[in-house]
Each structure stands twice: as C-alpha cells, then as structure tokens.
C-alpha cells in the first residue's frame, strides 16, 4: 500500500503564481534532461549519468531559474528513474 499526500493549491492562493512558475520550470528541466539522456542512449547505447547531465544543463534557462538544490534533485531523480528502468528491464 502506498500512502500519498496531496496538496491542492487554488489559483486564488497568494503564492499560486510562484508555485505555478516553479512547477513549469521543473517540468521543463526534467524533460530537457530526459531528452538528452534518451538521445545519448540511442546514439551510443550508454546513458548520461547525473554528473554529465548536470554539466550539460548548468547553463540552461530552467536550471538557472530554479534554486540550485531543486535543479540538482530533479536531475538526481531522473538518473534514479533511468537506473530503475534498466533494472526492471533486466528483471523482466
């Protein structure tokens, strides 16, 4: 069983605009990094690890406009997701 916590922030909330902007930047960074890792995998057969993807994306708009901890955590989660994908594929 999974416990889930859900926060619903209405657009009338005083911090809605900032939360919406940060979520948008986070989504963009995740998708950009995922695209780079995926293209690298198709071309070389190897995935970019966290350090490689961070070096490539450090100068990107979305990476810069998020707090550093948040940007790094997004890339760490993506790295963990790719590793889990290959482990699941191997187990299957």
Molecular structure report:
By secondary structure, the protein is mainly α. It contains 4 helices and no strands. The protein has helices spanning 16-44, 50-57, 61-65, 68-91. The chain is flat.
Entry keywords:
92 residues, mainly alpha, 0% strand
Give a brief description:
This is Transposase. By secondary structure, the chain is mostly helical.
**Tally of DSSP β-strands:** 0
The helix tally amounts to 4
In round numbers, the mean pLDDT is 95
Structural class determined from secondary elements: mainly alpha
Strand content: under 5%
The global form is flat
Give the low-confidence spans: none
What is the string of SSEs from the N terminus onward? HHHH
Largest β-sheet summary: none
Organism: Okeanomitos corallinicola TIOX110
Protein name: Transposase
Write the layout of secondary structure elements.
Elements: H1 16-44, H2 50-57, H3 61-65, H4 68-91
